Amino acid sequence: MTTTAVLDVGRAAPVRAAGRTTGSRTATALLLAPAVIASLALFVYPLARIVVVSVTEPTIGLHNYAELFTDGYTLRVLTRTLLVALGVAVLDLLMAFPYAYAMTVCSPRVRAVLFTIVLIPFWTSALAKNFAWMILFQRGGLVDEFLKATLGIDYPLLGTTPAVLIAMSQVLLPFAVLPLYASLEQIDRRLVDAAQGLGATRGRAFRQVYLPLAAPGLVAAGALAFILSLGFYITPALLGSPQQTLIAQLIMARVEQVLDFAGADAIGIFLLIVTVAMALLSRWVSRRATARKEAAR
Amino acid sequence: MRRAPLLWIVVCSVAALLTVPTLFLIPMSLTGGSTFQFPPPSWSLRWYRNLVEDRGWRDAVMVSLQVAVLSTPMAVAIGTGAAFGLMRLGARLRLIGAGALSAPLVIPNILIALAIYGMFLQMGLSGTILGLVLGQTALAVPFVLIAVLARLQGYDRNLTAAALSLGATPATVFRTVTFPLVLPGIVAGGVFAFVASFDELVIALLLQSPRTVTLPVQMFNAVVEAADPTISAASTVLVVVVSAVILVAQIGWTRRSEKRSGSGA
User: Does this entry carry the keyword Cell membrane (chain A) (predicted)?
Assistant: First the structure.
């Protein structure tokens, strides 16, 4: 199998489509089979199964979905989740843009340092990061004491939505910085220099030349942070309040406490639809930005 | 750099936000008290001792290692095979295939966990190591697939053609040309798969039984149920190990690229 695989990989791409033998087709199928089987068994089937469960239990119909809109609770949780995700995306872009931009203009040595600073939290255990925030935000913790001492605010952050927002932004920041850097690095900086050479001010060159070129990358990075926030469980579970749950907590609570699988499944499918819609929307916006960029050339 | 002090103030603040909060784990882990009180009332190494000696924590580390060690090679084999397979398809089919096989990355983990839990419960796989391994493998395959595929797409096919025309057998070409060139992708995907499995919470939380508590589940319960400061020792160990590995890799990589680009830099 490996031998034919190698041969075929070695062939130049255009030649390949024409000159395929049955043997190499079998090899392709054999190479792909484990992944396809794993995907069908551990992904497609389980997901299809919960779709079926959500419309057949306890009786056939869409009542599990109707309940989402009528219980007066799930929609509020979903709105809160969307708002937190939006907040995370905005905060992350505000922090990731200057950071990723700096990475493209600094010396290689500084870039290596900035890279390392992003990579360490990227690889660090999510529980460790969230637990660290818990220590800082708890009553009598450093942030609490600092707020009391400097601003006179007595507002322990642990168990509030702002705490969830701050911690989630930090945890997801590397996911915004890394793709944004990859995209900003592609921008030809000479275009900005040219604009300035032609008499534009630095601000104007940035706004009218750099920003449009950076737009697709910004949209993609913001969308990634947004989408990853939607399904986040650890941060709201550890730092949020039971009175202000996000949608992932709602799903877990339905399953673990009430054993209401059909209800949890319906919320899960609903979350999936929202996620996919957001992903498609961001791709469309990003494409349009790219198209405008091409047209501007 | 001198021209934009504001930019560098922002960059330093962001860098601080990324790194500083986690540093508070270290003093926390050295507390002599038995709560999360910070700053600690007294100092001791008792929670590190507890991490090693306590049955629950030791078992959790072993379960996590066992699951990661079993699921990583499976994910690497499946993902690498699929990447090679996809490269043999036409461009259009390859794109569709890669999208379909890496879909689990885009879908909220909580939903995949929910779906797998429901199925495993029916099949009696909930609360077993096998169930955990299968679940983590499903999540890890896309990481390997993407890493290897990226490497294969950047691969210059002329190298294989050249080796073949010089008389190498296909097996030799694979061993001496293709494999070494693709290896970094396989290793990167494998490392990612291992870490993702070692750190996964939601599936493990749903599939847990008294015998299959993974380290993340134990840490989660230590906060939510027990207020057990051993979590700070466990967190510190994880952070230190990860940081050390990344620093060594970064330094090695910087050295190598400096050497490659000559003495200049």
Answer: yes
